[in-house]
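Backbone-to-sequence.
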């Protein structure tokens, strides 16, 4: 007995009535069997009904791929009811990964030329939803004709389809460039909004289009002025703001047209001031228009007064109750702080108040902006606020806050004592969260400040006596006690509260540090070295120090055991040399002040790069090359580069700082090897000065599109005569609109000086779609292999 097929409404009710997932699967399996049988029978009157049920099943997450060919049959049908369901099925079941989507190109072309508006609308919607680059190239002329049709319904959908085509294939810009100027004179809201969007896409992807549309800046200014003063139509007003969607889109286009162009910027300055002063800020729609106005002012060549007005608007946003608006204001001020530092400084108190936000994203943005506002004139006040925030900030912000305070203190410290006090406060509050170079920087600073040796050692001793759990603090304190323990025992420092410390107390504290389960191996190394140095600085007997050192001669930690054994030998065989060997460390001279200033300037960027680029291990590089057999003559196993042998002469010259370094090699020109939809891959080349056959290739991938690139992987292969090692990339996500690029270094050894060629494979996700590109680079500069 044949079970009758359910209607769509009955199927929905039965699925919703299922009490368990097993019952739901049973209902769907039975109905899918009925749908397959109906498709095999080929009943044209039931096909669209069966496909409609299959699309509902697909939306529930069950497989429905067997309905793809039925979509093509329904699209080719002359009946509108069939076409409607067929086009809907094509949008849901087909995409660029299926070759079947190319089979509907002719059907879409025929429907676009029929002249029936509902059918043309269905075809345009489908093309704009799943049209591939090849389909867009085949149907571009038909869409261009529809842009000039008398029906507003068709023109609006044709404009939106043109936007999709430009995103898929920017080379089609020349097709849609002429109609855009005429469409700007439209009064229909949907057509005008779509035209502005289309022009924006053209300008972002085609420099020629950008130059062409700079001529229509006065027309765009007039459209926006009309919106602001008289309004467009009441049906498109939101909360008293006249058509905010159209205003925002026009402002974005003006920002692109006025960027790096003085004449266009001057034409829109007065209008931007009018929009900024007349827009209502009590509603969210007005805030959206104001934000786009501020972003436009920031990007174009605007007047100084206009930029101050933009900063003041962002300052008002900081006082808004909406967290989203405050976050947007902090992000925009962070972009503006480098170019208009003094204007942003006026809102410093409001920014500091945002540090206490309970929302983690808001407090992080406020921290970044607060650190950017620190300068030599406000460093004391800002450091007090930041140190207070450090004591109460969430654990995930402590590392960034501590590192930012240390960098700002190093750059703007008014005195060495203030600098030392600031670092000590950070180490005491969040010592476990500071960067690894904090210990070396503080020891260097204390060593240079000879007049503060007594003050520093007493402060560090007191801090260590209160808390030995902060490892960086314990390491600096142990080093300082070992170097200046005699000054600690003298007790004649006038800058601290007077207190007397005995030799036994100092030794007991260092022993406690050695025995603590919280001490790291490096901390124990500092402590045992400090004990050894105190043997030459204390006046009493050294038997206690000898006993402690001898105990650690059998320690399980190899590093600590080696130190203890060497110190025992120093006590026994070379006791007459001990005082000379354990003298105070000489002052470390910096090589050049210019290099120091540059390092201070670049530490923030270096911190990001160091955190994002872990040092790769050889097995990781070998795994990459094993997985990637791109070239025919690439061996199946990984090729490892031999370690670079340091040049004795070069090392001696570096050690003695002699001006005998060889002249730097001539720079090798860079090369752009890949560009698609805003994703660019550039190669830069540096030849190692001491190993001529070694080439360091830096692959820099940037993203100028509006969508983030995620899961980015770059793999490379070279011919058999080369040896290559891939280092780990700095990340796998490339932020949109010119965010921090991803870098990766290839080390290529070419002992035979053969012609170099690379084969690259890029895999990533962009705009919700997976992308894979494999290509060969055979036009590398001659300097890379000769």
């Amino acid at each position: 007995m044949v079970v009758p097929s359910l209607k769509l409404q009955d199927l929905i009710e039965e699925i919703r009535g299922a009490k368990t997932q097993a019952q739901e699967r049973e209902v769907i399996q039975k109905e899918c069997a009925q749908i397959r049988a109906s498709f095999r029978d080929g009943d044209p009157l039931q096909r669209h009904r069966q496909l409609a049920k299959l699309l509902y099943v697909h939306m529930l997450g069950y497989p429905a791929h067997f309905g793809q060919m039925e979509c093509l049959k329904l699209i080719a049908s002359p009946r509108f009811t069939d076409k409607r369901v067929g086009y809907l099925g094509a949008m849901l079941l087909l995409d660029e990964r299926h070759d079947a989507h190319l089979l509907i190109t002719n059907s879409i072309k025929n429907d676009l030329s029929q002249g029936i508006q509902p059918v043309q609308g269905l075809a345009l919607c489908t093309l704009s939803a799943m049209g591939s680059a090849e389909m867009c190239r085949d149907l571009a002329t038909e869409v261009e004709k529809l842009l000039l049709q008398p029906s507003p319904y068709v023109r609006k959908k044709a404009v939106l389809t043109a936007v999709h085509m430009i995103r898929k294939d920017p080379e089609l810009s020349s097709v849609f460039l002429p109609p855009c100027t005429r469409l700007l004179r439209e009064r229909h809201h949907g057509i005008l909004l779509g035209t502005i969007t289309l022009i924006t896409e053209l300008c972002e992807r085609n420099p020629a289009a950008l130059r062409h549309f700079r001529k229509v800046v006065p027309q765009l200014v007039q459209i926006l002025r009309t919106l602001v003063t008289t309004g467009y139509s009441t049906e498109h007003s939101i909360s008293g703001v006249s058509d905010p969607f159209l205003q925002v889109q026009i402002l974005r286009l003006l920002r692109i047209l006025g960027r790096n162009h003085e004449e266009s910027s001057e034409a829109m300055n007065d209008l931007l001031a009018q929009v900024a002063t007349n827009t209502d800020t009590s509603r969210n729609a007005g805030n959206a228009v104001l934000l786009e106005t501020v972003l436009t002012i920031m990007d174009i060549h605007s007047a100084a007064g206009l930029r101050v007005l933009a900063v003041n608007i962002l300052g008002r946003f900081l006082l808004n109750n909406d967290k989203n608006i405050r976050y947007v204001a902090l992000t925009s001020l962070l972009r503006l702080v480098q170019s208009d530092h003094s204007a942003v400084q006026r809102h410093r108190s409001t920014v500091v108040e945002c540090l206490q936000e309970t929302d983690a994203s808001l407090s992080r943005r406020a921290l970044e902006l607060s650190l950017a506002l620190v300068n030599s004139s406000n460093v004391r006040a800002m450091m007090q606020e930041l140190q207070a925030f450090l004591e109460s900030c969430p654990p995930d912000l402590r590392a960034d806050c501590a590192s930012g305070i240390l960098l700002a203190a190093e750059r703007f410290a008014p005195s060495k004592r203030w600098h030392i006090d600031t670092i000590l406060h950070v180490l005491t509050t969040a010592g476990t969260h500071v960067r690894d170079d904090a210990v070396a920087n503080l020891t260097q600073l204390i060593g240079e400040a000879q007049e503060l040796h007594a003050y520093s050692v007493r402060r560090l001793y007191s801090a260590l006596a209160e808390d030995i759990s902060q490892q960086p603090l314990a390491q600096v304190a142990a080093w300082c006690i070992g170097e200046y323990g005699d000054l600690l025992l003298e007790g004649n420092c006038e800058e601290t509260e007077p207190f007397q410390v005995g030799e036994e107390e100092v030794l007991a504290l260092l022993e406690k540090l050695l025995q603590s389960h919280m001490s790291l191996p490096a901390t124990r190394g500092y402590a045992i070295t400090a004990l050894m140095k105190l043997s030459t600085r204390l006046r009493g007997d050294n038997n206690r120090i000898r006993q402690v050192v001898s105990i650690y001669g059998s320690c399980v930690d190899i590093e600590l055991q080696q130190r203890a054994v060497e110190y025992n030998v120093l006590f026994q065989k070379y006791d007459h040399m001990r005082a000379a060997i354990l003298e105070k460390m000489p002052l470390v001279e910096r090589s050049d002040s210019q290099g120091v200033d540059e390092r201070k300037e670049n530490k923030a960027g270096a911190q990001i790069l160091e955190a994002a680029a872990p040092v790769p291990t050889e097995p990781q590089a070998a795994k990459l090359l094993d997985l990637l057999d791109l070239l025919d003559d690439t061996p199946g196993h990984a090729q490892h580069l031999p370690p670079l042998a340091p040049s004795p002469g070069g090392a001696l010259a570096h050690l003695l700082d002699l001006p005998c370094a060889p002249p730097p090699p001539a720079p090798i020109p860079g090369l752009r090897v890949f560009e698609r939809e805003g994703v660019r891959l550039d190669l830069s080349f540096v030849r190692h000065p001491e190993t001529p056959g070694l080439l360091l290739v830096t692959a820099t991938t940037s993203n100028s599109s509006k969508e983030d690139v995620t899961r980015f992987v770059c793999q490379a292969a070279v011919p058999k005569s080369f040896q290559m090692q891939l280092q780990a990339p700095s990340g796998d996500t490339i932020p949109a609109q010119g965010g921090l690029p991803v870098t990766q270094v290839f080390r290529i050894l070419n002992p035979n000086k053969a012609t170099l060629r690379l084969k690259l494979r890029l895999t990533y996700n962009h705009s919700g779609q997976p992308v894979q590109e494999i290509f060969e680079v055979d036009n590398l500069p001659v300097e890379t292999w000769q």
